[in-house]
Design a protein that fits this description.
Layout lengths: L1 E5 L4 H13 L2 E6 L10 E4 L16 E6 L5 H10 L4 E9 L34 H16 L3 E6 L1 E3 L7 H10 L3 E5 L5 E2 L1 E3 H13 L4 E5 L6 E2 H12 L4 E5 L1 H6 L4 E2 L2 E2 L6 H7 L4 H5 L7 H14 L17 H14 L6
Parallel strand pairs: 1-2, 1-4, 2-3, 4-5, 5-6, 6-11, 7-10, 8-13, 14-15
Antiparallel strand pairs: 9-12
């Protein structure tokens, strides 16, 4: 099919383009041209925040557009309006962050309450919070394309090209070896989506004429915290010793879950919201998730190709735990738990 990707050189967008090119799709990307283009795709340059940001598209037509924008919703609004009569379907990479956390429940599906938002937000230069930005983007796409809009509410996204740095931090930390603070419980169920699986599902669903909102993330327990970190040890070939530690010890030390210890959340209501969502609608629509070993292995290979370091987004705090804080906590853990992995 003829595919237009708005973005296409970052994490998810790059995965979409690579999958589409490999499938033989006719791919055009539009972005600011600040990163290398992907072989096999036609690269156009434009800044969507400017009045003529879409001018490079001319009057061409496409079967599907995939939009990865995650900031001011008015940018999605303007793109959807400009492409209304030139694109068959509009795929928008959204987020499960659009749900109203205060009203969230375990196993919440796509009918859960969402945050209040506007498709016009940001047009006057005001800042827009992430949840409102993504929900506003959804509203913008639906306002123009109706049931031809596909809203992929992704959860935690992992894989090669990750520019948040969550899985890369764990891989690099474990590769350094030694005693590693491993946040328990070891059998804590995780729910995430590999960027390539998100890309495959979006392209397949759009080509099949699927529309509406979907929680695009694995089933809860697709892997566990233990399986994830064990896989990191195995893939890196490290001599790391995972020191599994009770959440209360970590929290009492003032460590911030999710940011200082990426991916991990203690088993609280926030954990239930992020790692126990209902994904039956996406599964019924063809979502398939590759084994965690594949995602970890490929992410490590990508990091190695970069010399171990990835370029991270500057609008997000860099993840990871201060080595001195880790050492202080580990000193107590090792004193109380002398056998590695016990």
């Amino acid at each position: 099919m003829r595919l237009l990707v708005l973005g296409g050189t970052g994490f998810v967008g790059r995965s979409v383009v690579e999958v589409a090119v490999a499938r033989g799709d006719d791919v055009t990307v539009l972005n600011r041209g600040q990163r290398p283009a992907i072989a096999g795709a036609t690269a156009l340059v434009g800044d969507r925040r400017t009045p003529d940001g879409l001018a490079a598209l001319g009057r061409d037509e496409w079967d599907v557009v995939v939009d990865t924008w995650d900031a001011e919703p008015y940018v999605v609004r303007d793109a959807a309006a400009a492409l209304a009569d030139r694109v068959g379907r509009y795929g928008y990479v959204s987020s499960r962050s659009v749900y109203d956390f205060e009203a969230a429940t375990t196993d919440m599906d796509e009918d859960g309450k969402v945050v209040d938002a506007s498709p016009d937000a940001g047009a006057a230069g005001e800042e827009v919070a992430y949840a409102q930005a993504k929900r506003g983007g959804e509203l913008a796409a639906v306002a123009v394309f109706g049931d031809r809009a596909l809203l992929a509410r992704a959860g935690l996204i992992l894989g090669p090209y990750e520019d948040i740095g969550r899985l890369p931090w764990w891989l690099n930390r474990i590769a350094r070896g030694g005693d590693v603070l491993a946040p328990g419980p070891r059998d804590l169920k995780l729910q995430y989506i590999a960027a390539r699986d998100l890309a495959i599902w979006m392209l397949d669903a759009a080509a099949a004429g699927v529309g509406g909102a979907f929680n695009v993330v694995s089933e809860s327990g697709h892997t566990t915290m233990g399986d994830l970190l064990d896989t990191c040890v195995r893939v890196t070939g490290s001599d790391a010793r995972l020191r599994w530690t009770d959440p209360s010890v970590i929290l009492d030390a003032g460590v911030e879950p999710w940011t200082e210890l990426p991916i991990w959340l203690p088993p609280t209501s926030e954990y239930q919201f992020l790692h126990a969502g209902d994904v039956s609608r996406a599964m019924a629509a063809g979502l398939r998730c590759r084994p965690v070993t594949d995602t970890v292995t490929d992410t490590w290979a990508w990091l190695q190709s970069l010399g171990g370091g990835a370029t991270l987004r500057t609008d997000r705090p860099a993840p990871g735990l201060d080595p001195d804080v880790e050492a202080r906590i580990l000193a107590g853990v090792i004193r109380d738990q002398p056998v590695p992995g016990a």
